[in-house]
Design brief:
Layout (H helix, E strand, L loop, with lengths): L4 E5 L3 H12 L3 E5 L33 H4 L16 H14 L6 E2 L3 E7 L3 H4 L2 E7 L2 E7 L1 E4 L4 E4 L13 E4 L13 E5 L3 H11 L4 E5 L5 E3 L9 H5 L2 H4 L3 H15 L18 E3 L3 H6 L3 E4 L2 E4 L4 E3 L4 E2 L4 E4 L3 E3 L18 E2 L3 E2 L7 E3 L10 H15 L8 H19 L8 H12 L5 H7 L1 H9 L18 H13 L7 H11 L1
Parallel strand pairs: 1-2, 1-7, 2-3, 7-22, 9-18, 10-11, 10-18, 11-14, 12-13
Antiparallel strand pairs: 4-5, 5-6, 8-19, 15-16, 16-17, 20-21
Length: 508
């Protein structure tokens, strides 16, 4: 194959879609994966692997439904359930790699030690990469780099007075696998996000008592929406995205409160929905209702055998504390001046391209947290990055890129008090789609296919809608959109109730 050589770092979700995007644009991808198989974080192991950051636990189920989290030209099979276990999702990634023949481009058991600008970077924009494989190191030169190794590296455990004296087990959620090891024990889980909810619920099935400490509360969103439709299919539409933020916040908090009375269950968030923690969970309310989980406020200090909280309450004879408190940002193989190790200093134009580089020949895929499905956003990032690397799309100059970064930082600090936050999926997807030239043309659709236009605007923002036209269009996109609702319902209808009713009436 002739074309620019592009190094792809990592063979997880972002790496796989980056390989494919490079191939679509006539580039030559060379992927380096640290481990012996593809899948990244979705590869389950009983113990943490070397240099592993985030990890899946045994009870993990996707927070986004299959129609909203699939790759845009590779829908899930009709028989796949609406939400997936980590094992089902890993198999999907393997099928994706098989279908698009991505394996030949992946080099397994390769550790990227260093990425730096080549000596003639000012003229060529090339990169020098040091790779360690089988105990030996080599240096290779690439025309471009797509960093797809994930932004969550080092587990973040807050500091508390007395924690170093606590005699029970202390671990981060990345080391948690299942709750069975805490049978008949008293456990404290710290955090207000998805992992904190999952771990609390799973552990509560085995432990004597589970406590959940949150800093400012959380908003609990069930996977199952009204009418047993996945909640993300109801909320993430182009139409609702046009509503004022206050109305959207009112709608989503009203929906959340239909299933869980946050105040009565001690979960009430101190901040509005789009500014606070969110927890996708269908069971935590029931576990609180039966007393197996007890929410608690902020920790004030640990004792040798327990913990005290800011409201004056305390727990004695505490056996373990599990911190579901996130991760530090980290890309250790590249200089901080290119990819910073803190969100306050990170300067990525539209979350992808280092803003100050003279040549836009390095892209970061997957360095943004999404309030919804990650995969469609990361795929669009990869498609856009590949077109930029192939010089089929152009970026503004460094001055304009830095201006965009500073403006975004300012807005985030004003609205959230910090630079790291979860981004709603639809606006950022539409922005990337504009850059690529694949955003649905509703003027044209209204003329050629009014029904499809209606479904794409008022219905869920399916990833497949970004394959209807433009670069990388897919002939199956229209059918995938039209079939999506039935595909969600089909796998759950394993008993034909209507037929049983008809059969009974015929017997009578």
């Amino acid at each position: 194959m002739e074309g620019k050589r592009i190094a792809v770092i990592g063979a997880g979700v972002c790496g796989l879609v980056s390989i494919k995007s490079c191939l679509e644009e006539g580039l030559e991808p060379v992927c380096y994966e640290l481990n012996s198989e593809l899948g990244g974080v979705w590869v389950y192991s009983n113990e943490l692997r070397p240099n592993q950051g985030s990890a899946v636990y045994d009870c993990l189920v996707t927070n986004s439904s299959k129609e909203m989290t699939c790759f845009s030209d590779f829908p899930f099979p009709r028989t796949t359930p609406p939400y997936l276990t980590h094992r089902l999702y890993l198999q999907y990634l393997r099928n994706y790699a098989d279908h698009f023949n991505l394996h030949p481009y992946i080099n397994f058991n390769c550790c990227v030690k260093d990425i730096r600008q080549a000596k003639d970077f000012a003229e060529t924009g090339q990169w020098e990469i040091t790779i360690q494989q089988g105990g030996t190191e080599r240096v290779e030169i690439f025309d471009g780099v797509m960093v797809c190794s994930g932004m969550f590296k080092d587990a973040r455990i807050p500091t508390y007075p007395g924690l170093d004296q606590f005699q029970g087990d202390v671990l981060h959620s990345n080391a948690f696998r299942n709750g069975s090891k805490y049978k008949d024990k008293t456990v404290l889980v710290v955090g207000g996000g998805h992992s904190a909810g999952d771990i609390s619920v799973d552990t509560s099935r085995h432990a004597n008592q589970v406590y959940l400490s949150m800093r400012k509360g959380t908003w609990v969103i069930p996977r199952t929406g009204l009418g047993c439709v996945p909640s993300d299919m109801l909320g993430n539409t182009r139409f609702t995205n046009l509503l004022p933020m206050a109305i959207r916040a009112f709608l989503v908090t009203t929906f959340a409160s239909l299933r869980v009375n946050h105040a009565k269950f001690g979960l009430q968030s101190e901040v509005p929905f789009f500014k606070g923690s969110q927890m996708v969970n269908d069971e935590i309310g029931n576990r609180i209702f039966c007393g197996k989980i007890k929410p608690k406020p902020v920790i004030s200090e640990f004792t040798k055998n327990g913990v005290k909280f800011e409201d004056g309450s305390e727990i004695n004879n505490l056996d373990a504390v599990i911190f579901a408190t996130g991760y530090h940002l980290g890309y250790k193989f590249i200089d901080n001046s290119i990819i910073a190790d803190s969100h306050d200093e990170l300067e990525l134009y539209k979350y992808v391209f280092p803003a100050r580089l003279k040549h836009s020949t390095l892209a970061v895929v997957g360095c943004v947290a999404i309030l919804g499905a990650n995969v469609p956003v990361y795929e669009l990032q990869a498609r856009w990055a590949a077109r930029v690397l192939a010089k089929k799309a152009k970026l503004p100059g460094p001055t304009e890129r830095v201006f965009e970064v500073r403006g975004r930082r300012k807005r985030l600090r004003e609205n959230h008090g910090r630079c790291k936050t979860y981004v709603p999926p639809v606006p950022i997807q539409e922005d990337y789609a504009n850059e690529i030239g694949v955003r649905p043309n509703f003027t044209k659709l209204l003329v050629t296919n009014p029904s499809l236009a209606f479904k794409c605007f008022f219905g869920p923002t399916y990833p497949t809608s970004y394959r209807l036209h433009g670069p990388g269009s897919w002939h199956g996109a229209k059918k995938a959109i039209l079939d999506a609702w039935d595909n969600v319902i089909y796998p759950t209808k394993t008993r034909d109730v209507a037929k049983e009713t008809r059969d009974r009436k015929s017997v009578v």
